[in-house]
Amino acid sequence: MTVGEHTSAALEHVGGPTAPAEPEPDISAVLDGPFTTRQLLRLDDALRVADQQTGLTFSVYLGELAEPARESAEQLHKQVEHAATAVLIAVSPNQRVLEIVTGPDARKRISDRDAKLAALSMAAAFAGGDLAGGVLAGLDQLASHAGRH
Amino acid sequence: MSTFLVFVCIPLGIIAVVATLVLSRGDKGRPSRRYRPGRPYDFQPIWFLASPEHVRAVQNGHAQPALEAAVVENSAGERVLPGSTGGASDRW
Q1: N or C: which terminus of chain A carries fewer CB neighbours within 10 A?
Q2: What letter would DSSP give residue B53?
Q3: pLDDT value of position A118
Q4: Residue B57 in contact with partner chain A when CB distance is under 8 A
């Protein structure tokens, strides 16, 4: 199986984040999550488009963040491949906390003010109970602020 | 007798049909997975990336490195990055 086949086959899966190398719990964790299949597909598409257009690595974490939330979000951010150009959106619905972490290189393209602007619109959507919509809006704003690479 | 049929039996019949439709849809469907502010959110942590092979559920926050990468390690073996990270925080 070539790399291309591997990628396209994985992306055809519901929600995208399902690779043959990964065990089953991953798939169930994603499918049992708060998102519908349609929302997962849109999220996957938005992430791919954002990555392709900007050359940065966007990722979305959805779950508990250990206190203090900022530090644990930065710890997560460090685990991303090429963390300098990575942008992490960490959302903890239980704590009602939202953290956007940009790597040193990504920070040059997405200023902290731009990130705060995206955070505000995301928080507004989350307060209305729209997790997927908020994440999509935030991704879109961050990617457009970063510009094309 | 026909008055009784028209004004009692037909309305009762309609009420019975509507009630059956409403109640039959009530509890059978799965509970809504939609997030609502203030309600508990009890799903496993998920991490989405564009490259699917790099996503996995994280147990206990960030106990294990989720993504393999050539990142600098400091003397304690922790992954560190040169430079500082930016971003923003918000609550709702």
Answers
A1: N
A2: G
A3: 94
A4: yes
